[in-house]
Amino acid sequence: MHQTPLENPLYDTLRAFADEGPLRMHMPGHKGVGLPLPELKGYAAIDFTETGRTGNLYAPGGPVEAAERLWADFWGSGACLFLTGGATQGLHAALSLAAGPGETVLMDRVSHRSLHTGMALLDLRPAWLGRPWDASAGVYGPVAPEAVDAALAAHPGCRAVVITSPTYYGVCSDLPAIAAVCHARGARLVVDGAHGAHLPLFFGEDENPYAAADLAVVSTHKTLPAPGQTALLFATGYDMDELRAASLLFATTSPSYPMMAALDRLRTWLACGGAERCFQAAEAVLELRERYPALQSTPELPLDPMRLTILTEDGFALAGRLEELGLYPEMADRNHVVLIVTGADGKEQIERLAATLDLAGLAFTPAPALSLDPPPAAEGVHTPREALLGRQVTLPLEETEGQIAAQPVAPYPPGVPVVAPGERIEKKHLVYLADMGYNDPVTVLFS
């Protein structure tokens, strides 16, 4: 993390412009006067459209680009683009930059469903990259650089590699080592870091793991104090015009100025005590992991320092019990309950968290023997594009054996497909999904 100037070129411009009381004969329709929600009273004042004063997310220069450049410098990346459509927008843009129609992309099997839909929209072909399964933790481990090298050797025409780090459960991969392998094989590295916007804080200057990637996307709203849908696309080897053009393929032409201003202010929050709050949250998580049955960070299973993943014999029952006590987890599966701790959680919130886990009977409980197995492999029959854009029909899950998935069959969260678009649904998948507590209707190709 580099030192950052304590200036906010976008927010300061919007605030100064609003204070002048301009006559707004342009969008948005509230004209800066107010919105019909009292909680958003101050939001309207800096909610502008593109003018000569406010700049344009999709044009060079102005306060928007100035704020983006400060973020790039702060993280030690070549370039940064603001995103108001979440990590999904950024990942679609990254895929479009990394590979062309019909080309093969080496895909991490734990990729979020947004990457599968992006593959379909861009007519890309997946080659699947497996991960080691850690039976004691009930999760996939990190991607090994050697596995990436072997997979690229087996698919010499592969143009890009997509890695998810951290995973929903907090597992991190060695991105600089993976990037070195990719570049030696002539492939670009795309990283889905949606759950890792805070991770660069825990590395020294010039050691941001995402900066090693060609393209990396982080969801600021997931783990930092930022509005929903805000995210950042970092890039090395691409200029801002390329990032803007790729992003605009998938983005609204009316991006939210308050959301972008919040990204601008977030950077100075991190520099003015916010990073320290994240460090304190990480220390609290380390203590909570020692007190409760939880995933532990090891050299074989390196974890996000701010993710608390509880191990349990019945994750759904535990999540229900916690909600009855007023604690709402991020997600649950058969053997895990995932709790996201951030720099917004102070001493009061951490103490309440611990007290609630105690009430749920978890204090000093030994980690249970886990019964969760990895999802069974699926047979690819059609390309993602053929499946996603083909004629479709929705059926009850129990009636889909032998059918071809036309949409990701993905319990959400974590949104990782058990069966991806274009793959055949088999009995083993139905059994696995039932064990996961998933029974939603499934969209398949019409035949």
* Count of discrete alpha- or pi-helical segments spanning 4 or more residues: 13
- What's the rounded overall pLDDT mean? 94
Beta content comes to 5-15%
The largest sheet, given as strand count, sense and whether it forms a barrel, is: 7 strands, mixed
What series of H and E elements makes up the topology?
Answer: HHEHEHEEEHEHEEHEHHEHEEHHEHE
Number of strands: 14
What class do helices, strands and sheet pairing give? alpha/beta
The general outline is globular
Helix content range: 25-40%
Poorly predicted regions: none
> Order of strands across the biggest sheet?
1-9-8-7-6-2-3
End-to-end gap = 54 Å
Please state the CA-atom Rg, rounded to the nearest Å.
22 Å
Description:
It is a single chain. This protein has 447 residues and is an alpha/beta fold. Helix 3 packs across helix 4. The chain is globular and about 65 Å long. Strand 11 and strand 12 form a beta hairpin. The longest helix is centred in the middle third of the chain and has 35 residues. The mean pLDDT is 94. It starts with 8 loop residues before the first helix and ends with a strand.
